[in-house]
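Q: What structure does this chain adopt?
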Amino acid sequence: MPLVWVSISGHGFGHAAQLVPVLNELGKCVSDLRVILRTTVPQIFFQETLEVPWEYLLSQQDIGCIQENPLHIDIPGTWQAYREFHLSWDRRMREEVHAIRFARPTIVLSNISHLGIASGVNAGCPTVALASLSWDQILEEYISDGCAQQRMIVEHIRQAYWGVRMLLRPFPGIVMPAFPLVTDVGPILLPPVRSRGVLRDRLKLEPHERLVLIAFGGIPVSSLPLEQLEGLKGFVFLISGEINVEGYTRLVSTHSLDLPFRQILAEADVLLTKPGYATIVEAVRLHLPVVYVRRYNFADEQPLVDFIHQYGRAKELSLDEFQAGQWLQALEEVQVLPSPDTAMPAEGTHEAVEHLLEFFE
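A:
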């Protein structure tokens, strides 16, 4: 029975979000396909999106980055976590290789764990990567001058990546020289969700009021300038996360809506977020205006910013403006921006699956 062993970075939901559409489409082409998920991404994410039969095996596949919140990367904490992860590398490799050999998958597919890739290669299984970023390129920006240990960790990751058969790189992606063979495909997305028009009725909005969805991916915000947002007349803010909004009239938790996140996204008037792959590409497809806050030290951020300005409508909000609740100008201006002249490139899910099917013939 065909089986895909899937190694997924647990840093937010973006890595899983790129893999799920490909696995769903692959399941339509390969009879009786099964998937083993090796990750720390919560199971509920896959329960809502993954259509092929799957088994969940909880396992930390890499570090990614340690983040105090969506907009701040704890660089010292990240390096410390990598040091500890690599101290147990030999044990982790033995466990992964043993588990892969026992499962006997058709392929190992990784986004974008170097442990998953190295283990697949050492287990003698065809191993493929699918990702728009790689951790060696992300960490490169954080290396301290003269720190040999940090450089060694990055080189270790690159050596693991080098063993892969192929990297499938969804657009927009960064340059990743650690991979010997890079195959570009179009943007990868789940099938579109159409607006059902229920959200405005449920919230009893006036015709002039605009819904602003605040969503920062798998690492939700822990604090917002709630008082300032409450004073922005003409807007209602939908907040994805655990922030307590009790007592506010213009602030609504998405958890209280009992609707899938992508349905809420499809019915919003404006999205406020950071540049993250799945959210940005989905917003462009929906023609949804985006106000974004940048980190300025994450390697895949600039390609995503370029993407949304070329194919969508977007305004940047500085970190100081974000924290102070000075959102009004950006929210108003982004809604009146002209539509882009260039359509988003064709989606690449089918392209990616065609390349993977070669391993199932």
